[in-house]
Amino acid sequence: MESLSVFIGGRAGDGIDQASLLIGKLLNQFGYYIYIYRDYPSLIRGGHTFSIVRAAQARIGAHRQTVDVLLALNQDCLDKHKDKRHSRTIVVYDSDVVKSDGLGIPLTSMVKEAGGPEIMRNTAMLGALAKVLGLPWEKFEAIARANLKKETELNIALARKGYSAADIFYKIEAQNKPPLPILTGNEALALGLSAAGLDAYVAYPMTPSSTILHFLAEHADELKLKVIHPESEIAVIMMALGFAYAGRRAAVGTSGGGFCLMTEGLSFAGMAELPVVIVLGQRPGPSTGLPTYSSQTELLFALWSGQGEFSRLIVAPGDAEEAYYWSGVALRLAWKYQLPAIILTDKNVAEGTYNFDPKEIKQLPEESLDLWSGSGEYLRYQETASGVSPLAFPGEPGRVVKINSYEHEENGTTTEDRPLTKKMQEKRLRKGIALIKEIEGLEAVKVYGRKEAKTAVVCWGSGKHLCVEATEKLDVRVVMPLVLSPLPLVQLRRALEGTHQIIIVEDNATAQLAQLLKLGGIKVDAVILTYDGRPETVEQLEEKIARGVR
Fold first, then answer.
1. What share of the chain is helix, strand, coil (3-state, %, to 5)?
2. Do domains 182-360 and 445-548 have the same CATH topology?
């Protein structure tokens, strides 16, 4: 079987998230690539929630229109998702609370008789799934024991009951390759920051970036990090800039609403030339919008936010490996060029769960900080050909390190002098010119599919795997810029060379990447836009692209 999709759903509080992760780990052990999509409301308990766990022989990062196994812990799973069934879909359901065809198992009664809490229904359901997929009990039990740390024996007993009550419908064959680690995009991003030398992570929780805070707080000691949760997003950005002033590498995480509050601090970083990394997890808006769903609506906001003119780096990874690598690049280049860097993610990447292959990670670019020699007066904003001034940090003898959000002289003293103002503005913008040259030396644009195809589908962020898979049967090349500021125009034009048609695919209503490409002189012929908060399926996008290809 080239691909298998398993749907599991119930109410918020039914343990769907952990159950889907266990399904992913189970299929991963058989050598399959996996991708898990999570869908949940902003309600704490009671709303409908589900996950789709997809396994495939090839790398994936999107889900398909239908599923092969549908695990229903409540009636909503069937009533709301009729379109996810095909002719051979196996429905496994709790017959105590759900009416359906398929394989009914009295999960509620089973758990009650065993004296377990209701949430253990999902454990019995997973046991049934193992049997449905034709997996050996011993293999499932080993994985379950490794992951079910609370009331392990009762969980195993209930899983065994579910296994015994089910029948075999599919036969999953093990692939001839070892399992890979499983990470969410946020976890990979956090580890990439750490690998690049992160000293502190500061954040106020805001979906879909919150799990970076949780993950790093849990692993702060082993990663040798300070992890801080201040009282507001304004406090977050100013504390991070304080770390940078002291010579400590800091990153912050937020979503659009929090980033709004951080923009004055972003401008502070631009003027004071303080390096900081901002993880901006996009979600539908404006205002609160859909707080637990996904979009790509903050590209132009990230590009133009803040008052005045200053250089910034913006990257947009499309899966776990890219989140790891480009978060490290963002941190290192922020420090090399003393400017803010923004990592644009969205729910589908941030909370999506992937196999992570360390062999795919390229070495981070070399970092050579320009440090002050120690002789003469220290000039924090010394004019240089590149615009990057030598760094020194407070607390060391023989230097005064003065930063300033006001316009300033080279030593940091406030000025309103016209020639000095012009000189310092030009200095700051020269860093952007140097950054462009650096970016053009990296693989900042990727091309997939038939590279000679006359039609190009251009996407960014979480559109990567969706577009690649949706165009497999079409004569199309997929072009994906990973850096969005400064836009790598040399690489983009090379990737698009010979095309007769450019189609943009984005999760927003105003074609923000298309607008950015037009500013760079790249003509766009058509756009395919999604803006309901949910990702398109492979089949849906394939049909839309096929209609537009000429």
1. 40, 20, 40
2. yes
